[in-house]
Amino acid sequence: MTPLELTHLAAGEKSAPVTDWAARIGWLVGLALFIALVYWLMREGWKWRGTLQGDLPELPTAPEEVGEAKLAVLSMSGRYHGSTTAGQWLDRIVAHGLGTRSRVELTLTEAGLDVVRPGATDFFIPAGALREALLGKGIAGKVLSEGGLLVVTWAHGDRLIDSGFRSDHAAEHTEWVDTLNSMIKKSLETTDTEGAR
Fold it and tell me: Is residue 6 in a domain?
């Protein structure tokens, strides 16, 4: 066969047109049902986790008092990445809206840490409940660069909770860690002094 004959033969061969529309539609409907099932299972898992964490008390709100305790020591805007059981960065807490990622405005006062989240539940961490602040790289399945996350450990009910925040200006994290830890140390010293009396 000459190259011209081969070209003519190849040009003459065509694939058969696809006419099995029922099979195509069946596959598309099956895929859509599968995606809906996966979404439904994820939603049920989220609700189930919230039910398991139902023993978590209501979140405290910021005190209404004015004066020295209300003066801001530090403030920061950024993102709230979620809360987990302390030390277990994948065990997300979803009860009372703590699992919802959102924008955040943090304000540290002598009374505690005020967490204001537009579109989500605000909460307040009293100064006496603060346990530790550190720089982390991951929380609730979100991984960032080393030191890219401000992790605040606090007590709520009988649990220790880690909450992760990322500032719009990551350079602020170190100042927050130092200020929070000195505030916690001061609070513990005051508690020890009062307990010794």
Answer: no
